[in-house]
Amino acid sequence: MEAAPRLTVTPPSRRHQAMVIAAIVCFWPLLCGVVAGNGYLRRPPQSTRTYAWLFIDQMGFYMPFLVVTLFVFFLALAQQRRGVSLKNMILVNVAASLGWMAFYSVYAIWWILWHRGADMSQFRQYFTQLHGINSLFDYSIYWYIATAVYAGVLYREAQIRARQAGDLALRTAQLEGLLVKSQLETLKARLQPHFLFNTLNSISSCFRTGENELGLSLLVKLSDLLRHALNQGERRMHPLRAELTFIDLYLDIEAVRFEDRLRIERDFQAEALPVPVPVMILQPIVENAIRHGVSQSLGPALLRLHGVVQAQQLVFAVYNDGPLLEESRMDDGREGIGLRNTVERLEHEYGNKAFFQIENWEARGVVATITLPMTKGEEGADG
């Protein structure tokens, strides 16, 4: 059976509550003053009733309205905090309105007799004559008040949602701007000049030594790499398998430069491959591992890429068995242009639900880990 809709509005701040309470407390006495003033101006010439008497008379009638307005306001606040269902909200107000009708229909007649000095023995007569009309009016006045209060609550909810939509639009615009900047940094930072220089030098060396096929293969891979980087367009997300296609091109080029020194291991769950990830979010992590780990190793080096889905999260780790990071450089590992952009993009895309960490792995090597929440996201193309 489908659950009833729930009222789950963000509770107002203390300042907002105080302003509403002050408005309620001021409104009803002000209304009493206006009604009393109107009665004073229209009183018969022979009347001896002063404005003060008329004001007190109206206060006696309207002060219960002030109390019931505050009651409805605090009732609405309590229902917001508890997320009361719409059905229960209506039932509570129906019960409250019936209680109000029973109370006020008796109270109003008592006030008329007491304040105007009438004989209390006439109470039954007044009650019999006025009960029907007064009860209907008293019942309806509760719903007028409740409608006004809940209309204010819903209006405030609409304002909050509009503001949140505006904030989301601004955040999206910032993310798109950051993505454009990130794409421009592809050739300036992520594919840094030294990488392009080393690659072109390797290609030139292959042709000089007669390894034409290898040189041509490297040239094709470099062309594919640059085309992949520049052809992302405005795409924000794509499957992990598309991200790995780019990384494979990058590593194929680096493997030629390091020759037999670099051993690459890849281990990815099949469930992880279709998971959407931000475009070019992993390449700076791999490049960082090669620059600060593999290239610093004197002998053979291992680079291990691992991806797994666990607990509704995608965990991607890059391990290299190069030198350990000093404690003072743990945070510095995040400060390069590529990694800094990576951290900023993760924060913009996922808020505090994504994590990026660089740490030493036991006695040898460094591991960088990105943990992303599972989202439906965009599938994008694999190319």
UniProtKB/TrEMBL annotation:
Gene3D superfamilies from the UniProt entry: Histidine kinase-like ATPase, C-terminal domain (3.30.565.10)
Keyword Transmembrane helix attached: yes
Keyword Transmembrane helix: yes
GO MF term set: phosphorelay sensor kinase activity
Entry GO terms, CC: membrane
This protein's UniProt keywords: Kinase, Membrane, Transferase, Transmembrane, Transmembrane helix
Chain segments annotated as transmembrane: 20-41, 61-78, 90-113, 133-155
Domain annotation Signal transduction histidine kinase internal region: ranges: 183-262
Pfam families per the UniProt record, alphabetical: His_kinase (PF06580)
SUPFAM superfamilies assigned to the protein according to its UniProt record, in alphabetical order: ATPase domain of HSP90 chaperone/DNA topoisomerase II/histidine kinase (SSF55874)
Cited PANTHER family: SENSOR HISTIDINE KINASE YPDA (PTHR34220)
Protein name: Histidine kinase
Species name: Acanthopleuribacter pedis
